[in-house]
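User: I've been trying to design a sequence by hand for this structure and keep getting stuck. Would you show me what you'd pick, starting by listing the structure so we're on the same page?

Assistant: Good idea, let's start from the same input. This is the structure you sent:
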């Protein structure tokens, strides 16, 4: 089979190699899937650079999210059945940027029928992260104001749609006109282009000086610093990631004086500590997709041969929405 492999860390375009390699065999408890689509995520780029908290042994195939068709079962596996269309994360070091991948059977989820392969491949990580961030951590309520940074990106776009589905007023912050248009299409009520506007001032004006009730921040750096200036009384800032490359050092005295909360979100831990919540989130996300309230924004669908370029562009922050790699295209 064909697979992208990484023998040393560095910029994705420089270190990824497309090779012919042996098709993997499922171990007990695993399933082998034919990859129908793989969504490109920022952690893929961080893994290539050696900067992610998960560091697979070299060489490895990146790709942390997929939609696939089950083609073989490991020992002891009865579900999902052969032929089932599933989504989830593959078992590294054999990731999703390949024609075939391995998955733990208990960590596969039925692909929503309302979504095609590319859309379904982007439902798992970003939308689960958004669901836990907004509902479990921030307890977002209908009628509240939600501020989403990187609102046209993979993680932020999911938060925009989930916020609207929850009845919130959503203010999306983006960088550039194309991303601003994408955020509007996603349903953001107010869109701020940080290249030409001060989101702090926009939030204050839009809320009559009160500020945002919830901030969803996958960016860090200046985005976090500005958020502390426009957070409401008893507001909640959800720290999702640091796409800017800058990790803030919160001033806890400021949180005390303004009476707001800073909430960390490591979605992967829920699989360890509250598996039932992960399953419940998937059911709710499937229902929202069926009702047409959420749909991953797939801006590009590229063949396997273009995966390295796609990962690099996500690393550079030049993409809108999600890129899906289609190995069979």
């Amino acid at each position: 089979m064909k697979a992208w492999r990484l023998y040393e860390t560095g910029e994705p375009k420089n270190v990824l190699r497309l090779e012919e390699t042996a098709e993997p065999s499922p171990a007990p408890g695993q399933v082998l899937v034919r990859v129908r689509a793989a969504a490109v995520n920022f952690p893929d780029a961080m893994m290539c650079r050696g900067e992610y908290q998960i560091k697979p042994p070299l060489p490895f195939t990146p790709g942390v999210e997929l939609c696939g068709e089950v083609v073989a079962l490991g020992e002891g596996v009865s579900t999902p059945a052969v032929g089932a269309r599933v989504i989830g994360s593959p078992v590294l070091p054999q990731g999703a940027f390949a024609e075939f991948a391995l998955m733990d059977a208990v960590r596969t989820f039925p692909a929503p029928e309302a979504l095609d392969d590319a859309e379904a491949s982007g439902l798992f990580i970003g939308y689960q992260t958004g669901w836990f961030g907004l509902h479990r951590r921030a307890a977002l309520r209908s009628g509240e104001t939600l501020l989403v940074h990187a609102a046209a990106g993979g993680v932020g776009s999911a938060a925009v749609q989930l916020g609207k589905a929850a009845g919130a007023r959503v203010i999306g912050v983006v960088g550039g006109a194309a991303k601003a248009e994408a955020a509007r299409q996603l349903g953001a009520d107010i869109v701020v282009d940080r290249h030409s506007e001060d989101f702090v001032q926009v939030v204050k004006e839009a809320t009559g000086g009160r500020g945002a009730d919830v901030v969803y921040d996958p960016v860090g750096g200046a985005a976090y610093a500005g958020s502390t200036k426009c957070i409401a009384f008893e507001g909640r800032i959800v720290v999702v990631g640091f796409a800017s490359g800058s990790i803030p050092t919160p001033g806890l005295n400021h949180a005390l004086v303004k009476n707001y909360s800073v909430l960390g979100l490591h979605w992967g831990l829920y699989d360890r500590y509250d598996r039932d919540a992960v399953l419940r989130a998937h059911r709710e996300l499937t229902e929202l997709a069926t009702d047409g309230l959420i749909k991953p924004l797939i801006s590009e669908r590229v063949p396997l041969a273009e995966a390295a370029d796609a990962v690099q562009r996500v690393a550079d922050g030049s993409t809108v929405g999600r890129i899906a790699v289609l190995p069979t295209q």
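That's my pick for every position. To get oriented when you compare it with your attempt: The CA atoms of residues 94 and 136 lie 31 Å apart. Residues 275-290 form the longest helix (16 residues).
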